[in-house]
Amino acid sequence: MTARHGHRRPLSHGVEWEFDKVTFSREFPRNVVTKLLVERAEHGGWELARVRITPDGTRRVVLRRRIIRAVRTA
């Protein structure tokens, strides 16, 4: 499993998302990949944005989470 962190971009007005790309090799069974992704969702606030399965069986997963900016009050 490999991961790349920190990609950010706005998708719609006023909402910013942080993206994380994770790659799972074909040796990881489907239930193990599911368990790892559920753990990231529950503990890190990530949601599934995209899954691509390549011809060699590698899973390329894109996760996203909303960036919440604190607004300073007077």
UniProtKB/TrEMBL annotation:
Superkingdom in the source lineage: Bacteria
Pfam families listed in its UniProt record: DUF5703 (PF18963)
Designated name of the protein: DUF4177 domain-containing protein
